[in-house]
Design brief:
Helix content: 10-25%
Distance between the termini: 95 Å
Number of strands: 4
Order of helices and strands: HHHHHEHEEE
Shape: elongated
Strand content: under 5%
Strand order of the largest sheet: 1-2
Oligomer: single chain
Structural class: mainly alpha
């Protein structure tokens, strides 16, 4: 149903009147607060030691004046009036002097008009009222009992320096509460409301703040390292000098927030909204700035050493990220000897990049495109390469000890087809379902390798020590196994068709049901090897003769 214009105007007028009534109620509340504050100020002023000292001085001056006049003018009859006048002038002068000393800004205030001065004074009082508003004292035992009994509204309470570690306080309301120096670390504060709360110097590290309201909260120097801030509201919050190291701030709105001197090292700021943000002298070393818009951010004096950015990152005009020590994550980028230890680079594109000698210890490279990348002599210890594409990459002499090449169930394996792993360290690596077809593993360290059950066809394993390893049903067709140590290894059902086993050590190896057709065993050591049901058709035996029988 359409509403006529007069009706719309009437509804609008009613709405405005209701809004004005609400505003008047709020104003009345603040006026009452201001009156109380003014009364307190008057009481404090009347009881000031300076006023008492002034009164004492007044009487001393009056006494001196009386003695002076008595000595020089014995007939003087209006001493009392002079004393009174003198006392009055002295009082004014002394009060003005004291006021000037205790209020040095008054000289500037005199330049204001009377109206300006009154407004300024009221604003100062309101500000003081807001910042020094008396909080309700609450003992920790009573607080926890009331929370356990189902109460959630604790707005404006005073919990300064309280220790709440180990308690779950989700959905709690602590708006305008005083939580200075409080220990709130490692606890559940999901859906909590800290609007306008004072959390200066509070410890919130490793705390779950999922969907928590921290709007306009004072978090100056607060420790939020490792905290979960997913869907957290931080509009208007003060994060000056706060510790946000290791925090994921992706897609959170931080516009207009003071992050000056904050610790944002290891923080993730992907697509974080950062309009007119002060990050001057902030620590952003090793921060994730991929696809981050920093165009209107103040980065004066900020530390971006070893932080990462990509072609989607926007920096302020005339800011040089390379000079600041940041790393460009992009195809073909030069990251030789870069320190990227522990950095989150999953799902990025580093195709053809130069990462020779780079430190990627414990780095996340899952599902990263590393095709044809140069990772020679790189440190990839304990790195996550699950689902990474390393097709034709150079990993010669790289340290891949304890690297993760697939998920715990063996799924989403990395692609290592044609990769150069010559001289690489693969100790304690789980190779379940990893495709190493045509890979160069010559002189690689495969000690304690687990689940080498994938394809190694046409792979180069020259000189590799595989002693005692389980290689059952592994595809080694066409592989170069020259001088490989397979002493005591299990090769049951393995496919060694056309493999080169020249000078290989197969003593005590279990080759039952293995396929060695057309393989070369020239000068190989096979004493004690189990060749039951092994297919040796066309095999060149250790003496150089071709095995002609189809039996073992």
């Amino acid at each position: 149903m359409n509403i006529s214009n007069p009706q719309q105007d009437l509804l609008s007028l009613v709405s405005r009147m209701e809004q004005m009534e609400r505003q008047q109620a709020v104003l009345k509340k603040h006026i009452l607060g201001i009156k109380r504050e003014l009364d307190n100020l008057v009481d404090k002023f009347d009881s000031r030691s300076e006023v008492q000292m002034v009164e004492a001085l007044q009487w001393e001056i009056a006494d001196l004046q009386k003695r002076f006049f008595d000595a020089n003018n014995p007939d003087y009859e209006s001493v009392d009036s002079g004393i009174c006048e003198s006392r009055e002038n002295t009082t004014l002068l002394l009060l003005e002097a004291i006021d000037t000393i205790t209020n040095p800004n008054k000289v500037r205030q005199k330049k204001f008009t009377d109206g300006d001065f009154k407004v300024e004074r009221i604003m100062l009082i309101v500000n003081k009222l807001c910042t020094t508003e008396e909080k309700t004292e609450l003992k920790i035992e009573e607080f926890l009992k009331r929370y356990q009994d189902g109460e959630r509204d604790f707005n404006q309470v005073n919990l300064k320096s309280v220790n709440l570690t180990g308690h779950s306080l989700n959905n709690i309301k602590l708006s305008q509460a005083n939580l200075q120096n409080a220990n709130l670390s490692c606890i559940d504060l999901r859906y909590a409301n800290f609007n306008y709360a004072n959390l200066e110097n509070a410890d919130l590290h490793q705390t779950n703040l999922y969907s928590t309201n921290l709007e306009n909260a004072n978090l100056k120097r607060a420790n939020l390292s490792g905290a979960k801030l997913t869907k957290t509201k931080l509009d208007g919050a003060n994060l000056n000098s706060a510790d946000l190291s290791g925090v994921d701030l992706s897609e959170i709105n931080l516009s207009g927030i003071n992050l000056s001197r904050a610790n944002l090292s290891w923080a993730t700021l992907r697509k974080t909204k950062l309009v007119n943000v002060d990050m001057s002298y902030a620590h952003l070393n090793r921060a994730d700035l991929l696809d981050t818009n920093l165009e209107s951010v103040d980065l004066t004096g900020a530390n971006l050493l070893h932080s990462v950015y990509n072609e989607g990152t926007i920096f302020p005009n005339n800011f040089d990220p390379v000079a600041a020590g940041a790393y460009l994550i992009a195809p073909g980028s030069n990251l030789e000897n870069a320190n990227l230890a522990g950095v989150q680079l999953g799902n990025t594109n580093l195709m053809g990049a130069n990462l020779a000698g780079a430190n990627l210890n414990s780095a996340d490279l899952s599902h990263t495109d590393l095709r044809e990348a140069n990772l020679s002599k790189a440190n990839l210890t304990k790195a996550n390469l699950e689902g990474a594409n390393l097709l034709l990459a150079n990993l010669s002499e790289a340290d891949l000890s304890e690297v993760q090449l697939s998920n715990p169930e063996g799924g989403s394996p990395a692609n290592l087809v044609g990769v150069n792993l010559s001289g690489a360290n693969l100790s304690r690596v789980k190779l379940t379902y990893v495709n190493l077809t045509a890979a160069d593993l010559s002189k690689a360290n495969l000690k304690y390798v687990q689940d080498l059950t994938s394809s190694l066809s046409v792979a180069n394993l020259t000189g590799v020590n595989l002693m005692g390893m389980y290689l059952g049903n592994v595809n080694l067709s066409g592989a170069n196994l020259t001088a490989v140590n397979l002493c005591g290894s299990c090769l049951c059902g393995a496919n060694l068709h056309g493999a080169n086993l020249t000078n290989a050590d197969l003593r005590g190896a279990d080759l039952r049901d293995a396929n060695l057709t057309n393989a070369t065993l020239k000068d190989a050591k096979i004493s004690g090897a189990i060749l039951e049901k092994t297919n040796l058709s066309g095999v060149i035996m250790p003496d150089g003769k071709i095995f002609e029988s189809s039996g073992s």
